[in-house]
Structure prediction request, 433 residues.
Amino acid sequence: MYRSITFIYPPYSNIYSDHSFQAFLPQLGILELLNSIKDLDIESKYIDVQCEERIHGSSITTFLNIDRLGSNDIIGFYTQTSMMPWISNAINTIKKTDPRITIIGGGPYLSGVFEGKYTSLAKRKCRSLFDYILIGESEKTLRSFLTKKANSHSIFKSERLSGDSLKFPLWEKAEKYLEFYKPAPNWIKNNPQKSLPILFSRGCKRACSFCLAKTIWKSRIVEKNTELISSEIPNFIKSYGLDHLQIWDDDFFLLEKSDQISEIVFSNGKSYSVNTAPNEINKERVKSLQFTNCTNVLLGVESLDSSIQDHIRKRVNINNLLQACQLLKSADIKVTLSFIIGFPNETMESIQKIKDFLTNHKDLYDYVLLNILSLHPGTRCYEFVLKNGQFKESELIPNTARIGEPYSLPTTSIFNRETLQQLQKDIYTNFNK
Ligand code: B12
Ligand code: SF4
Prediction:
């Protein structure tokens, strides 16, 4: 039986780091895992490396000093593609310092590698790095792993939870980091509220070619049950003295319970923000958002080029976008537009379409988010790039040479990484208010 486990949320995102948008959000999945094992007799901890570095001003080397981590039977890593160079370095350091520690991993990157195709090299690398790997939703699997002690298999496929067992996260484990958990600073500056992120579901019905949602959660959406939602929202608001809930579900309007959620947050006298796609916005929905005090809507647009839209299968066009922005702005709801650049068929013209929209319609949005595409193993976009011979798999696998900088590979030969970063910087600087 294991006695102690520490979960690590590694640093590095592709969010442009010099820009004022530095979102410190907790890793909700880890907080939910901690919730699922809190009744076991196991000491559990949550470490957010980026926050720790802010608190202690430490570097990766001091952070990895085992004294800081304390004694652990198990160290568990959340994995994202962009974090893999840091993680592999961290694991090698931990193994050298104390080889008795069991290293486990879970999260999007590992799920993509073991559920996707064309990833034999990544599989081999991951198998040698982690002692045990849990793929997909891990609550049930982690419990049996911790209590039964692992068997001889090193890869565990997780079972899905039902809506009854989806709890709100165990925030107490992250309380020391709360001051860092912010949405975009603009929201804070213009509207200093106490807000925390939350999810009511897992999964997405859509299957955009660059996204891992389907690989991790399958295409069925599992939502929290109504009783849990009605009892947990008020408790959550009360426990943390919240003014605002950031609802981070992949697409709020794909939830069957979206109306109920809005009403419950509203009846507790609080405001909220949601993410969705422009083609989900209509008059009736905007009316209901306005009535229930939804103050911010993030629209996932990705691209304004029709051939890229066909490729990624998001099915958004400029007319949807214009109409959605007009409806939201006329209801006095703040609009964040989220784009991605660096798709396999990206051109300077396709990026120009984003710039033109932002220049010509300044009154229709408030904030812009623009990320450079990272190719994630397990996605159709990754397979497409490999099949077309744009890159070899060995070039796509994160390697330790990139420690210290966000990992993102340009997926088209006409843009190198620096050009994409410069374009990203220009758009952030010119279009965020
Ligand atoms: C909210 C969100 C964000 C937020 C906050 C991220 C955060 N701190 O959690 C913001 C806006 C900051 C963000 C930024 C980015 N994100 Co994001 N984000 C999400 C989103 C929508 C929800 C994350 C979440 O809470 N999921 C729900 C929880 C319950 O699931 P989970 O995190 O996967 O955890 C479960 C399991 O994976 C597993 N598990 C997780 N960790 C561990 C560890 C162990 C040891 C074990 C056993 C199990 C385990 O158990 C958990 C409980 O079931 C996901 C999509 C999605 N639906 O998951 C994308 C997603 C995670 N993001 C993604 C990306 C690419 C990014 C960015 C790199 C974008 C960019 N280019 O800038 C940055 C990276 C920032 C960063 N350092 O995290 C990708 C990651 C793909 C990949 N292979 O890396 C995802 C999957 C979306 C996609 N496109 O496919 N993101
Ligand atoms: S709508 Fe969002 S979460 Fe759903 S598949 Fe597309 S990018 Fe992923």
